[in-house]
Amino acid sequence: MYFQGKTVIVTGAAKGIGRGIALLYAEKGANVVAADIDEAAGARTAAEIREKGGEALFVQTDVREEADIIRLMETANRTYGHIDILINNAGISVFRPFFELSPEEWDDIINTNLRSVFLCSREAAKYMRHNRDGGAIVNIASTRAIMSEPDSEAYAASKGGIVALTHALAASLGRYGITVNAISPGWIETGDYSKLRQIDHEQHLSGRVGKPDDIARACIFLTDRKNNFVTGINLVVDGGMTRKMIYVE
Ligand code: NAI
To answer: What single-letter DSSP state applies at residue 168?
Structure first.
């Protein structure tokens, strides 16, 4: 019942993990503000929620643009009267051979994935700090914040930055009753799950590849007021992949 009537903003809600998060909050009775750069797909997420009897609004937003973010929060607050939860999920995963990575690409990845978390959190918290029971922010990082494959410098740096930004924000916003946590997903399949191979599933300690719902349920846990003793953490949701020891024989 906790989420009934709460206002939840989900960035990157048009597709993939963000869409899954938006649908689960709507199921729990929240007012969902779906923000995304992709107008057609974002509007579809909001329409899908309304068709199922939920409450949703789509606001086209480029999270690289401060003005868009200010407008997003104003619109959410004007429509529902309060902002309670923010899920910073929008992100791009671009991998480039290191010697070909240009400063422009670096800046674009950092601005989309990391600077957006700073701007969205600042603008949402301006409203949340006036709530009687505070608020909650969840930032979607990645296990690539702590482990790497080659040619992932900008993405890894953006996600490592999110983990650090998360505990800094938790420290600054705690006094307003706002919790701030990160989730680091491992492999979350956002395409056709049935096309995955047995070997894909078996490499996880959990015996399966992740789904958007796995991340959505973690968001629910971290944003429930009852769990407000949890703040500043990075919750790894990866089927055990980053805990698995690998010896090649
Ligand atoms: P996706 O590509 O399916 O969805 C990302 C959404 O963000 C899209 O709807 C896209 O339009 C939106 N977006 C991109 N740039 C934007 C911008 N400038 N402004 C507003 N919206 C923008 O990606 P997926 O897989 O759902 O990932 C969601 C988040 O989870 C990302 O932050 C990603 O880095 C993270 N993640 C995903 C993992 C996975 O295995 N799928 C693993 C670890 C982290």
So the answer is: H
> Distance between CA 5 and CA 1 in Å, rounded?
9
Q: Which ligand 1 atom sits nearest the alpha carbon of residue 20?
A: 26
- Which of 155, 176, 193, 247 does the annotation list as catalytic? 155
All structural domains of the chain with their residue ranges: 7-243
What CATH class does 7-243 carry?
A: alpha beta
Please state, in angstroms and rounded to a whole number, the distance separating the CA atoms of residues 146 and 143.
6
**What does the alpha-carbon distance between residue 129 and residue 168 come to, in Å, rounded to a whole number?**
16
- The predicted model scores a pTM of 0.98
The answer to whether the beta carbons of residues 142 and 184 sit under 8 Å apart is yes
Q: Is 25 a catalytic residue?
A: no
Examine the pLDDT at 249 and tell me if it is beyond 90: no
The answer, yes or no, to whether any atom of ligand 1 lies below 6 A from the CB of 161, is no
